[in-house]
Design brief:
The chain is of the alpha+beta class. It folds into 2 domains: 114 residues, Probable inorganic polyphosphate/atp-NAD kinase, domain 1 (Rossmann fold), CATH 3.40.50.10330; 162 residues, Tumour Suppressor Smad4 (Sandwich), CATH 2.60.200. Helices cover 32% and strands 32% of the residues. The chain contains 10 helices and 15 strands. Strands 5, 6, 7, 8, 9, 10, 11, 12, 13, 14 and 15 form an 11-stranded antiparallel β-sheet that branches. It starts with a strand and ends with a strand.
Length: 305
Amino acid sequence: MTSVYIIANPSSGQGKAIQAIAELLKLFHEEGLGPLVKLTQEESDIAEYAQKACQAKVDLVVLVGGDGTISHFMTAVQDYDYKPVVGIVPTGTMNNMARSLNIDQNPKKACKQVLQNQAQAIDMGLINGQVFTSTISAGSVPASAREVSQEDKEQYGALAYIINGLQSFSQGQDECYKVLLDGVEVQLNIDLLVIGVANSIAGYTDFFKSATYTDGLLHLFILKEAPVAEKIFAFSKLLAEPDQAQDLSQFAQGADVNSYMTSFKDIKIDLLDKGGQVTMDGNPGPSFPIHVEVIPQFIQVIVGD
């Protein structure tokens, strides 16, 4: 390894990102390397630096930030044959990808993992031609998550999302979707739809319990229209063992099962009667209809212990 970029969101983590940059520079200098530090002010900066790293065939890019920083980087390198190895130092709110890859949530310890650990080829998701790294979601809960301010995220962390999500359970309205999965097409009223690349969703590492970034699959959770008490019960049961229907058509027709979980490689979903968009890696994403598929072994990422 001879060339290293550090792409960092300096505002991430209430000063944690700046401390992580200093720690990385110290560790790399001890190895005789002088990384180029690229600080981002806007989303377009991440794309610019990512593309330059591919064009220059940089050996390693260390991303310092949250899920949004990682997502924008992966989108920017999508069309390049050469992609640098990626290291991650998590300083965001949820850090879903870092959690799923067992990367330490302590930025200083994560810096050491970047230099000491091995890289692994991991999967990504693709929605309407755009890469996503962690999560696609739709319904009242994701819509409320988009309303959480940066100030609240910095002050309350994941708790800010939980508070808004609980409020949306009582205030939100279900919507009618058309879902095409494995040749089966159904229409059903959905309050929450989640697609994940790996196990960690909203900071909870056992949402999709057996899912990994190397299984070649994406993972789907659906919560149907139900009274508030039943929604909360379905979620609490998910923490232990999710409800399973034999197939999607059975789930759509059944009245006794409120939640459904499965794994897949390709799915098409449309929101009927009105327009709308998904939440992608915590940010506003593409509008419906959506086509979601897995990209196996998209890029090499240094994983945790």
